[in-house]
Structures are given as structure tokens and as C-alpha cells.
Amino acid sequence: MRQDPTASHPLKIGVSNTLGWMAYWQGEILFVKRYRHFLSVVYPDGGCSTEVFTNATMLELETLSPLTELPPEGVLEHTEGWSLHRVGAMPMEEAAIIEALARCGVAPLP
């Protein structure tokens, strides 16, 4: 998904992302967001652990925690790790994209 300044309507997608990372390539920079995905739990929005939202002015990479019932004054921690990597312009070939992701410590499905 790409952010489009000419978009007339917002767009949101979500998935159950068991990889524990998501990324956005902008120019020569790759932004990587890491998180822990839990198995055998219920996630909001139909089971989504990651969502991407975009409109004409922004794009958001969002991670979601499992649904949790907290007692009054209870605490829940949801941790994300962010990193920026200078990787050059995004290639059009899948193998080159996978190689660039691997240099940043992330990889697609095994």
C-alpha cells in the first residue's frame, strides 16, 4: 500500500501478521516496525495484529495487541521496536526487495 496525496477516500487493511514486523519504503529509507505476535489469542478487528491506514495526508503502520480484559487500574504493555535503514531506491524485482529486507534483519515468509 502507498500513501497517495490525490486519494479521495481513506483506505485501511489489516491482517493476522505472525512475522512480527511490518515495513514501509519511502524514497531510499526503509522504516521497520517490530512487535511480538501472540498465537492462540484473539485480536481485534477480525483477528488483525497489524493494520495499515492511509488517506491523502498520511500513512500509518499500526500494531495491535490481543484483546485483554483488564481489572480497574490494570496495566497492559504493548511494545514496538522502530528502526530506519538507508537501503536505496526500492527495486521492482522481488528477489532484490527480499535481499534488501534481509540486510535490515527482516525476511518474508519462510
What are its keywords?
alpha+beta, 30% strand, single chain, 110 residues, 3-stranded antiparallel beta sheet, 2 helices
Task: Describe what you observe in this structure.
The protein has one domain (11-68, 75-95). Helix content is 13%, strand content 30%. It contains two helices and six strands, in the order βββαβββα. The radius of gyration is 16 Å and the shape is globular. The model has no long low-confidence stretch (mean pLDDT 93).
Mean pLDDT: 93
* Helix content, binned percent: 10-25%
Structural domain count: 1
Strand content: 25-35%
Main sheet: which strands, in order across? Answer: 1-4-5
**How many β-strands, per DSSP?**
6
Uncertain runs: none
Order of helices and strands: EEEHEEEH
Strand count, sense and barrel status of the largest sheet are: 3 strands, antiparallel
> Compute the gyration radius: what is it?
16 Å
H/I helix tally: 2
Shape: globular
Head-to-tail CA distance between termini: 22 Å
Sheet/helix structural class: alpha+beta
Describe the secondary-structure layout:
Elements: E1 11-15, E2 21-26, E3 29-34, H1 44-47, E4 50-54, E5 59-63, E6 81-86, H2 94-103
Antiparallel strand pairs: 1-4, 2-3, 3-6, 4-5
